């Protein structure tokens, strides 16, 4: 696997709130959202339950905070990748697409707790309007980032097609995570993402 990033792990924070969120994320990975209990979070974070309730009035408030942490982490990884690669305004189309591909490969192979939690939150969001709204905003931001790439390298492309390409790109990236979490032998990730990139390049360049 030639495209794995060397991303800095989020440092272990002494912040009580960060300890709570990290503990909750670990429990979600181990037991799923439905299995999470405030008592377990307190034990995992080495805190009292009253510490949890000081920051979050309910389990739902805590879950929404964890969801934001998960969704924001993807953007943080992309920003680290840009910094690590030294990509600037002169970056090629291939370079720009690689940022998204490398981020997804990293969370699939190296730090899958975010993809695991994201899928669990997606399932919960079908019944929770607040979680649903967070996902809508996250995907909207993701599509906007990719649409800006299409606008840069194909400024004459109709906006409708730019929007379609952005949506297709997100589906290709997320689809890899879902399939790989279910069946790690389903396909070779390098080949999958190389083909995804070739599709997007062909569509953007026309």
TrEMBL record:
<dbReference type="Pfam" id="PF00440">
    <property type="entry name" value="TetR_N"/>
</dbReference>
<keyword id="KW-0805">Transcription regulation</keyword>
<feature type="domain" description="HTH tetR-type">
    <location>
        <begin position="14"/>
        <end position="74"/>
    </location>
</feature>
<dbReference type="Pfam" id="PF13977">
    <property type="entry name" value="TetR_C_6"/>
</dbReference>
<dbReference type="InterPro" id="IPR039538">
    <property type="entry name" value="BetI_C"/>
</dbReference>
<keyword id="KW-0678">Repressor</keyword>
<keyword id="KW-0238">DNA-binding</keyword>
<protein>
    <submittedName>
        <fullName>TetR family transcriptional regulator</fullName>
    </submittedName>
</protein>
<feature type="DNA-binding region" description="H-T-H motif">
    <location>
        <begin position="37"/>
        <end position="56"/>
    </location>
</feature>
<dbReference type="GO" id="GO:0003677">
    <property type="term" value="F:DNA binding"/>
</dbReference>
<dbReference type="InterPro" id="IPR009057">
    <property type="entry name" value="Homeodomain-like_sf"/>
</dbReference>
<dbReference type="InterPro" id="IPR001647">
    <property type="entry name" value="HTH_TetR"/>
</dbReference>
<dbReference type="InterPro" id="IPR036271">
    <property type="entry name" value="Tet_transcr_reg_TetR-rel_C_sf"/>
</dbReference>
<keyword id="KW-0804">Transcription</keyword>
């Amino acid at each position: 696997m030639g495209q794995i990033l060397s991303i800095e792990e989020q440092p272990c924070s002494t912040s009580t709130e960060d300890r709570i969120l990290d503990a909750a994320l670990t429990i979600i990975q181990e037991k799923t959202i439905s299995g999470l209990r405030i008592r377990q979070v307190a034990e995992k974070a080495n805190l009292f339950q009253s510490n949890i309730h000081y920051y979050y009035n309910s389990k739902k408030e805590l879950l929404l905070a964890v969801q934001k942490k998960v969704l924001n982490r993807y953007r943080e990884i992309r920003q680290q990748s840009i910094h690590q690669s030294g990509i600037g305004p002169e970056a090629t189309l291939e370079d720009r697409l690689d940022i998204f591909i490398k981020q997804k490969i990293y969370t699939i192979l190296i730090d899958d707790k975010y993809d695991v939690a994201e899928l669990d939150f997606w399932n919960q969001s079908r019944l929770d309007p607040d979680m649903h709204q967070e996902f809508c905003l996250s995907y909207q931001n993701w599509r906007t980032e990719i649409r800006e790439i299409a606008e840069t390298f194909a400024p004459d492309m109709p906006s409708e097609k730019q929007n379609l390409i952005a949506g297709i790109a997100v589906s290709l990236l997320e689809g890899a995570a879902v399939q790989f979490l279910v069946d790690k032998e389903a396909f070779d990730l390098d080949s999958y993402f190389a083909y995804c990139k070739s599709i997007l390049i062909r569509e953007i360049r026309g």
